[in-house]
Each structure stands twice: as C-alpha cells, then as structure tokens.
C-alpha cells in the first residue's frame, strides 16, 4: 500500500509538472502571437511589475497657480544597469519618488528602488539621462529637477554613479554637477572629442503661474542661462558655458545632441517654450558653438516642447522634429487658444525671436545647413498638447515612424475656463476682504482659496497619444487605433527600447495620475518585419555617442545616429535598430565612429543583433569629391556685378480686412529682361515697392551693369511694381517697358493702380506713354502676343484684386495695339475678362491647335481658365478634364512636355505643405458678405473636418471682424462647437460671394487634344511651397523640356505658418510627360527666399538665372550646360 501510495504521489506530481510546463508553453505562445491584429499590446502592470504612477495634486504649497509647469510631468530612462543583456527602466516622479525597475526577462520587472540607493527627498524630478559618465562600463543616471522656488535643495540635480553591484551612490556634488538652478532635462555628449562625456543642462528661469511672485517679472535674464559642463576625465566636471558660446537664456524644454550639419561633430538643438526662439548650436570644432538658428530655418514652433533628430526620408541627412501644443481637433483648437496677437507676433520677430507658429515643425534637412519645415505636408503639424516625440522604425518596414505623447491634466489654456478661474479668484478675494477688511490674519491667497474649486472650473480631458506610420515619400498615416496605441491618458516623457530582445521596439510612457504605459511590440508576429540591430561598444569604455551608421540595401540607404536623449525628459535605448521589411540579406553597414574611423560589415544575415567594437575600426579610404560641372547650376552671386536688394514698404493689410488669409501688399518685385539699346546685351528692370524706386540696369560689354536714368525712375516710386515686360509697342524696333501697378496700399480705384507704359527712344531713355481706357485694378501680370495677327504686339493684363475688398473678383484687360497706341478693348473683344477673378498669371498659346493664339489664365480661387480666340474675340471655353481644378494658382508655363505636338502646361499652386487643406469632397472655401449689416463686407474662410463645415478662424479674430458675434455667441467653447452655418446663418451664406478650392497641388496639365486635358500632381518636392514663377528649357541638354521653379509666400496671416519651405526646384522631363525632381544638392540650385520672379539672361558669355526676391537681394545662378 505504501508503494502504491508513492506511485500515486509521483504520478500526481508528474501531472502537475506537465500541466505547469504546458501552461508556460501556452503563455509563451500567447505572448508571441496575440493579439495578431494589433502592432502593440499594453502590458498589465500586475503582469509587468511596473506600477509607477506619477500622481499629481494641487496643494497650497505647490499648484498650477504658482508654477505654470506643474502639469508638465516627467520622463523615463532606459539602460542595462546590471549588464545582464536586458534593458532596465528608471522613472522620474514629480511629487512621488523616482523608481528603478530591473528587467527580469519575459517583459517582467522588479522594483529595486529602495535597495539600489535611489533617494526620495521630496524633490521634483523631471528628466532622466542615462550614460556611462566615468567610463567604467556601467551606466550611470543623471536626474534633472526643477520647481520649488523657495527650496533650492529640492531642485538640485542628482547623479547616481553605478557601483557595479546593483546599487548606486548619489554623487552630483562630488562630480561638480549638483546644479540647483532649475533643470528641465540634460544630455551627455562628447563635444570636444576627448573621449569623455560632457554634460549640457537645460537650465532655465522660474516658470511662474499667474499668482507666483515671479509673475510679470523679467525672466530672460543672463543668470538663468543654459549650462555646459566639461568632463575633466578625473571624475569631475567644470562649467564652460561662456567659453563655449552657449550662454543663452530661454525657456528650454528639449534637446538633441546630433551632428546637424554632417561635419562629424556633435551639435545641439534646443527647443524653447513660449516666445523664446529655439537654439541651434553648431559645433565649431574648437570647443565653441555658434547659434545658427536664424539662417537654418524659415520658421519654428512657438511653444516648442520635445525634439527628436533622425533621418525620416532615408536621404542620409538628419531631420529635426519639434512638437508644439496646437490641437488637430476643431473644438479643442478653438476653445484652448484665444488666437495670436499680430502686434505681439511682430514684437517677437523684432526682438530676435524669429518667426514662430503654434504648430509642430518637421525640419527636413536640405544638406546645406538649412532646413525646410514640411510638417503640414506630412500631416504631423498638429498633435494637441504634445510633450515627447520619438522617431523610430516601429513596424520594421525600413521607414522611421513617429510616436507623440500628449495631454494636460487640466486645460489651463481653455479661454473660457481661464476667465472663469480669474473671476472666481477675484470673487474669493473680494468676499474675504468684505468680511475681513484687515486681511483676516492670512499669509497668502492660498489660505482662503479652495484649489479643488479652482481645478473644477477647468476641463480635464485625457487624450490619445499619436502614432504615425511612415508610408514613404513624406506621407505619414495616423495609426494609433490600428496599432493598439489608443489609450487615453495624460502622457509626458516616453522612450523606446527592445525590452524583450525580440527585434522590435517597445514603447514606455510616463503618465500623470495613471500607471505608466509599457507597450509590447508584436512585430515579430507580423510578416515583412525583419530587422538587424547593432550594439556599439568601445573596449576601453570610451563613449560611442555621435556614431553615424549607414545601412545599404540595394539602392536604399538608412541612417542612424547614436545620441543620448530623445523627445522630452527621457533616454531611449542606445542600440542601432534598422527595420528591413522582407529583406533577407543586408548588403553592407558602414559605422563611422566619433573619431571618424570606420567599420564596414558586408553581406549580413537579418534578424540578429551584432556587437561592433570601435577598437576594430580603420581609417576610411573612400572619399567622394564633387567635381565642378557635376551639377547643372552654380551660385554665382559673388561674381555677378549687380547689387540689388528689394525693399518692401511697411503696410498693414489686416487693418482693412482682419480675416485676410495673406497680405496682398507684398507681391513684388517686378523683373524684366530685354535689350533696351540694341547692343546685343540683356538689360534688366527691377521694380520697386510703393515708395521705392524701380531700377533700370544697362549691361556693359564687360558684363557689369550701369544704373540708368535714376532721377526718372525715382519719380515713379509711389507706384508698386508687381510685373514688368519689355515689348516693342510702337514698332520702332526698340524695346518699350510695360509695368503693372499693384499692391494694396491705396484705396480702390486710386490712380496709383494705373499701369504704366514707358516708350524707349532707342538709347535706353524712356518717356511715359498713354494707355487709353486703362483700368484701375490692382494688377498682377502682363503678357504680350500679336493675338490678332496684325503685325503688332497686344497685351493681356491680369487684375489681381480689388484693394481692401478681397476676394471680390478684379477686372482684367485686353489691350489692343492700334498703330502703337494701347487701347483697352475688353468690353468689346473680351467681355468675360471683366470680373474674371483674382488673376495671378496667364499664357498666350494655341491650346486648341487651330492656328490662332488663345489665352489661358490662372488665379486664386480660380479654375484653370481658357479663352478661345474667335477671330480676335476672346471667348471663355470649357476645358474637359479640369472641372475640379479650382485652386490657389500662382503661375503657369507652357511646353510640349510629352512630345506629341501640342502644348501642355505646368501650373504652380499653393502646394500641399500649407495649413489649408482641400479636396473635391471637402473643399476649402470663402464667403464674402456684410454679415453684420455695418456697411462693410466680411471675409469668412471655411474648412471641413469629420464631414462638418467649420469657420477656419477662431472666436477672437472672427468677432473682431464681426463684433456682433460677441453678443450672439459669447463664449469660446460655444463658438468652437458651431458649424459655419450656425455662426453666420444659412441665408447670409447663400447670398454671399462664394468660392471653393478643390486642389492645392501644383500640377502637370497634359493636353490630350480636342479641348481635353489631364491633370497630374507634380512630384512631392514640388509641393513644399507655392510656385510663383518658372522657366521652361532643356537644362540638361537631353532633348526634353525641363522646368525650373521658384516660390514661397512669406505674407501669411499669423495663425498660419508661412510658406517658406520652397528652395527652388529643377524637374527633369523625360519627353513623355513625366518629371523627376532633383534635390538642391543634385542640381546645385538653391533659392529659399521669398522668390517672386525668375528670368534667364546672357552675361559674360554665360546663361544666368536671376531670381527677384521680395524684400531681399537679387540672386544669380550660372547654367553649367
């Protein structure tokens, strides 16, 4: 019986063991495969062991009324602190203790805070920076702290030195980095390449709430400057801020230490909150830095928060992604922001703050130390109150995606709530003083203020964080729902790391008032998710930060730079991670170390992690030099003997029309080339703004230019020159000059909108000629053609707008040449040109192939419009295939781009990188009517979101235009919820002038015959900005027509980021109607100013391209072929 009982016991135990093994197998299988429909799975804190919760509560001692950053949250740091091959996590806490979790494997963690030496002294921790600062092979932790105006000890930064035994010793004072100023975050970098990590601190001024003692005081003081500490290599740091040239003061939020300009030395990009501009510190390679932000970017974010730097388009250049706080949602964007103040906006610019807009910025690297913001093009321009942003390949497809945290515990910028809070506090004070006139023996406002009552007045809405999948070609797709990242929260710092060593990047997020998120990445269960990872080491434990790694696969390249911190407050993993999609082999990997030595690995298998040591690197031998003539254009401004700078007069268009989408007073300058003295040399006319003279430059035989008839042109300075054309009007063999008068400075019908004809005496001297029956519309363009075949040149003149009455359609003109006299014959021969619209450009052409000259016209809020020449009468005709081609067209050129014998067109539109978006189904539109019956018409711009039609502009500026809205609607929240019909009334809108735009894409218009056309969007590089002018020629001499474009629109209303991403573009035609766009580096052509006109002239036996820029210099490029 005893033996039998033992057998039963052994069998039972065997069954238990089998069940346990089976349960483990099932659990393991589940962890690898489920749920297969989501890219990420949020781990349960009970399973992961990570229960960190950054709990925040307003109290009398510390609250949002005292500290504006009270709801700013904190970060997370990633590092393998015990060198066991698993990455561990350190969470910073504001009012709660920091916590350290050691990775136990299988995505489970152990809280070792109390046994590891982590201090809980009540300090306010924000940033976590992880690095081996003493070169012992073990990662240390630097904690940035702030807040507590009256307790410097509690905002003193901490340095935890790894004791290599699972414990840490706080050593900030010992190492000389116990700074107590106020530090948002910090980064380590080896800025001087001495093999020791230096420390850069985001030290800043107090961040006062409205009831702080610092509120209303000067904050940007030198004493609050950023700080740089040099590592001596002897377990100590010394401050070198002033010596290094980074002693700037701002409101720093984030930092990235990256080689921005590709010279092998680590630079620093610093984001600044509020009105302080971001800083871009370029490493001068001598221990100093130069802030180059003014020349590097066209504009930047306003409330700049997190920053990450990575190559988002796989061109081997590092791009800069900065997040701000504007909401994508119509209601939140209008209820939480009261609107930008034009005077304050301009004051920031005048004070050196650059052009700042309340949008995320995605600064695409142009390869020449300049950047183009393409945030609106990518669709990542608005992600609500954003904090941390990460750029990484989360789905292993070879393209870097983005993850953005957002949310604020209470919407402190909700305009209505802000007013309610102020009223409540004022009433509380009043009631107390009424009861206790002597003050009642209280020490502060907070003795009588119930903070729960205050916070109850503010909305509190947790939000989804954002995830964008990179589809290539700068197209990003929101995927937080598809990927399982759609939990609502108040999230702040975030990091990525492969926590389970399965070859994909998991995501960790520090949240306010809820447990931290740890997302397991399930990409290993998806197809086309191959990868390769690199662990970069130095056998002497010298730093490898600043290492650049390129992966080559066929014709594709991926680039990764090893840096310290990313996003805000946080440190992600230090591994190099490349997603490979379905590739099974990697051609090569080239690692360029901080000392510029290189390691090359070839023919590598995928789905593995490789350790590469810096000590095995060798000196590079392959150097590529760009030969002269490799590019089609060369900047020759320095050798071009014509120094001209256009000066724009100061005029506030918005005083006349508050809701104008962009200024109309900054359209010039005019530019025209022609031989005015018949010496075979190209001369040049450059127009002036109102109050500034135009200039006529006569070219000399040596290629220099002489400024001609200066006194004569000065007399013409009251006019605004927006276009010009040399044309022989009186058939005497000499080029006369026609100048279009435009702008917005004068009232409608003013004499200064009259165009001017200057007759040439044959020597380059001009006198004014007459134009009979000329209009007084503000013009845009003049084009010449002998359209009636009578042997002289006739003119089309496009009317741009009616001054101070945008978008009322302007009148255009047909000027017939009658024996040398220009006569306006529009009423009799081209009646439909009257009230045609807001014309911007036109082309004479025989689009229908019937042997006579027709006219094609484009403009703002206009379709591409064709006028058929019927025996000298211009008749508007319908163009099949262009029914949905209404846009904000700026330019038009012609050419037989598909070599089929008829004329096609290139039409320059607003581009796809503007805040305004449109489509046939959801058009961007404008209404113009007297909505408040005050005798003046009002502009109302509209757009669609979620199939609802909303006013574009917010309550503040809308009620400034229509004051009656203040009484009718009253509150920002109410206005934010209303559709456009509810605000302005159906009947008023139906009776209004109404235009719709259906496309903003610059396009190729193919003529397919018989009045039929096919419209195709130009390459994505052509959509970065509006195209103002073009030249069509065979620039590369391959027998096919190419297109060279210039553009930009700097005069946007201040709530819309200005269109400044354009850098000029060469598109090579293939003779079949297809175009390939060359980058600036490939073509040699770079024109990133506010370019309005482009012409080609002959100078010094070379063809040169001249670009006239608004309020800027004339640029010159030489054509090399």
Largest sheet: 5 strands, mixed
Rg calc: 33 Å
Number of helices: 19
Quaternary organisation: single chain
- Helix content range: 10-25%
Ordered list of secondary-structure elements with their pairings:
Layout: H1 2-33, E1 40-42, H2 45-48, E2 76-79, E3 88-91, E4 99-105, E5 108-111, H3 113-116, E6 124-131, E7 140-146, E8 158-162, E9 168-170, H4 172-175, E10 183-189, E11 198-203, E12 227-231, E13 237-239, H5 241-244, E14 252-258, E15 267-272, E16 279-283, E17 289-291, H6 293-296, E18 300-301, E19 307-310, E20 319-322, H7 330-335, H8 342-350, E21 356-357, E22 361-365, E23 371-373, H9 375-378, E24 386-392, E25 401-406, H10 415-435, H11 451-456, E26 463-464, E27 466-472, E28 475-478, E29 488-489, E30 491-497, E31 506-511, E32 517-521, E33 530-537, E34 548-553, E35 556-561, E36 576-581, E37 585-592, E38 598-605, E39 608-613, E40 633-635, E41 671-674, E42 683-686, E43 695-699, E44 705-708, H12 710-714, E45 721-727, E46 736-741, E47 756-760, E48 766-769, E49 771-772, E50 778-785, E51 794-801, E52 813-818, E53 821-824, H13 826-829, E54 838-845, E55 854-862, E56 865-870, E57 873-877, E58 887-888, E59 891-895, E60 904-908, E61 924-929, E62 938-945, E63 948-951, H14 955-961, H15 964-968, H16 972-977, H17 980-984, ...
Parallel strand pairs: 18-21, 33-39, 49-53
Antiparallel strand pairs: 1-32, 2-3, 3-4, 4-5, 6-7, 7-8, 8-9, 10-11, 11-12, 12-13, 14-15, 15-16, 16-17, 19-20, 20-22, 22-23, 24-25, 25-27, 26-29, 27-28, 30-31, 31-32, 33-36, 34-35, 34-37, 37-38, 40-73, 41-42, 42-43, 43-44, 45-46, 46-47, 47-48, 50-51, 51-52, 52-53, 54-55, 55-56, 55-58, 56-57, ...
